[in-house]
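User: Need the bound-state model for adenosine monophosphate:
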Amino acid sequence: MKILVIGKGGREHALALAASKSDLCETLYAAPGNPGMAEIATLVAIDDGKVNQLADFAENEGIDLTIVGPENALADGIVDEFQARGLKIFGPTQAAAQVESSKDFAKGLMKKHNIPTAGYQTFTDYDKAAAYVKEHGAPIVIKENGLKAGKGVTVAMSEDQALEALKVAFDLPDNSVVIEDYLEGFEFSLIALVNADRVYPLECAQDHKQVGDGDTGPNTGGMGSYSPVKKITPELVEETMETIMKPMAKALVEEGCPFTGFLYGGLMVTDKGVQVIEFNARFGDPEAEVILCRLESDFVQAILDVMDGKEPKLAWTDQVSHGVVLASDGYPASSTKGAVIEGVEKVDGLVYHMGTKLDDGALKTNGGRVLMVVTLADKLEEAMAKTYEEIKKVDCEKLFYRKDIGRKDLENGEE
Ligand code: AMP
Ligand code: GLY
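Assistant: Bound-state model below.
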């Protein structure tokens, strides 16, 4: 088969790597891809936002299956365009992708279908939003509507912080915010392969959203992760499937926009059971990097089976994967570009490219999150030690990383 992966980040590198291992994969393309993906795929110089050009390429090249990575392409309707041209593509339509592109849509659907999530209200002007914050007090969560690469959320521990976040949000034109009750508990990510009302969970992962050690500082796209999460027992996965993932898939069918693709549940185990923090319409990043490297069965076959209405065969290694993101100084507020990176080839583990470019043969930083180093071992503690040993081999003076990915959970009994 000829397979095309859309996107250029670490998630897409992980999707491409999993696809490249499939017996079904004869030729692999990535558009636009990145220098890491160039080692396993032919790069196509079309940006992931250029829906029509991508469809032209798939048509002309006779691509048999396209796998979409990023949310912006989904929100722009890439799946609708491919389907209109009779091209096979794994991802949700623009309407179904609203589970991520519109927080208001997602929250409304959860409320209507009794899917457990934090109480909320949507606001389109500062004064009413500020009055609501003053009435409810902190902690409280402010979420800007629309796609913000994981950065439009403020978990405000004080009223002042909440009001500040509202000011920033309403400084932007035509913005609206969702204000949510604060949920306390243990967070995890569950990604499922979905086709209409059929939902098949992958293994869970634990992301680390905040930029600083000890979960401090602003939220980011994610600074590191590991999989599996032992604390998320089969019973908790079952509860999540029955009360959240399957009901959401069914709700989307009932709303007339059935979902196909990776449905991402950002979840919190609270004392009232598992609750939804957010849904995403695509694989997580940095979850894909630690989940897909543990898949032992054929990834492409699993996608084809799901698309054909069959149950996919999913087999996982018992090993634990652990990964740490290297980000450019200043991320997430700002970021530098163009710093030379050396030593990547010395790493004994997986190195996913999240934001790199080749410049005159030299590998350089190209944005916020730059690389992710992932290792596998029998226990989380061993994998952690290994990742932190290997990451030292990456030499770049403009990169930083969290030193504690997985540590808090190890201290709380994770193995
Ligand atoms: P989101 O982009 O919606 O996933 O939010 C980013 C991060 O903010 C989440 O991963 C949580 O750590 C935190 N968060 C979001 N919503 C809530 C909430 N209602 N209560 C507590 N923390 C939250
Ligand atoms: N890691 C969180 C996300 O992909 O949204």
